[in-house]
Amino acid sequence: MADGLCLFSKDSLIIKNPKKNPLVLRMVVLMFVMACGVYICSVCLRQYSARSSEHLLEVQVVERSCEAPNVEPSEKHYVHFPKPKTFSRSECACIPVRYFAILSTQRSGSGWFETLLNSHINISSNGEIFSVKVRRSNISTIVETLDKIYNLDWFTSASKNECTAAIGLKWMLNQGLMQNHEEIVKYFNTKGVSAIFLFRRNLLRRMISILANSYDWNAKLLNGTHKSHVHSTHEAEILARYKPTLNTTLLIPNLRQVDDMVTKSLEYFKSTRHIILYYEDVVKNATKLMDVQDFLKVPRRDLNSRQVKIHRGSLSSQVENWGDVEKTLNGTCYESYLNEDYKM
Question: Can you give the pTM of this predicted structure?
């Protein structure tokens, strides 16, 4: 009996289940962890993709919303939404901006005219940018400068704020404009830049102003300081005391040269969107300033300037050898310049 029990005990020892292989368990655990990792990564990728799509959609909506309302189809090319690199336009990002350039000649009232435009809260005209020769050394530097101006990244005392609605500059015909007119016309037409021509009808008055300004450049009549423009009657009276003597031999050729240059500029830029103004008309007729504001599509405002006119009254009182000038111009196509053309 005892032997039987013993045998049962031995049999029971023989039939015990073997130990599980630890390598198999590790493989099972590893495969489970890998499966969980793949699942978690797939979930994260789906969420990231969804967020990216939402972000792109938001950006697209913002860009599409920048459309100028009530703009005629023919005017859309001249409406811009610049994105400055140097600052953010913030809430004004979708306020349309017009590009312009004042094309003129020295001593034609362009400085006074520009101060009038800059008195408008929505207009910024950045002055005679291309008076610096390096900026007009070639067409590449000209384009680079223009791009910076029209992208609102050019800062001068005339710069307004992010809500500027018209941005431009003053550009003299002899500052690379005529020499590179083909490329500049192409730039204006491609970029949607409007031209504002401002000239003097009476080129004799312009010549007197140039000679007087050149004299003061050396004489510096105002306490040793040269000023092309003044802001007080007292300063204007001091500068007006000088009476230049005109070279009558070169008088007609010089007048003809300027006249031809003006005529050529109008011919060169006739394909651009433009308006033609004359200094005398702006002085006599205040509605001309309204025409300019309408041309730039900005709200009408009363414009003002602190500049004081230097040469007033009749031309005969402003020239030392007036008698010789009269004899030279009488009977020519420039005889009308001898007459009084406006009062101020």
Answer: 0.80
